[in-house]
Amino acid sequence: MVRAHASLAVILDSAPYQSRAARDDVDFVLAAAALDFELRIYFPGPAILQLAADRDASGALLPGGYRAWAALPDLSPARIFAEKKWAEFCANRGLDLVLPFETLNAEQMKQSWRLCDHAVVL
Hints:
The protein is of the alpha/beta class. The protein has helices at about 20-35, 70-75, 85-90, 105-115; strands spanning about 5-10, 40-45, 80-85, 100-105, 120.
């Protein structure tokens, strides 16, 4: 049994629309939130584009899922992290993201997720 408030690093290491399992990533995170993990969700590199509000996966014949990220704050006070250069990329292109996030460089991200009790890469 997991102790209450054990920290869980979820590292989402794929760009949007790279997999038909995108909804599985969201479902995993929402399930972890329901299990009372202290969630820290990391979007290294272009993975942060999964949070782009105006993206539509239907044209790629992918299941809906990206918009489900917006439900996370209602379930858990998760901390979301993006690489600084990719956050700047999104800002420069006027992309709205569905969740607030903190920025770290790649090395800071690795150091941060290593401090968590558990980690999973999706």
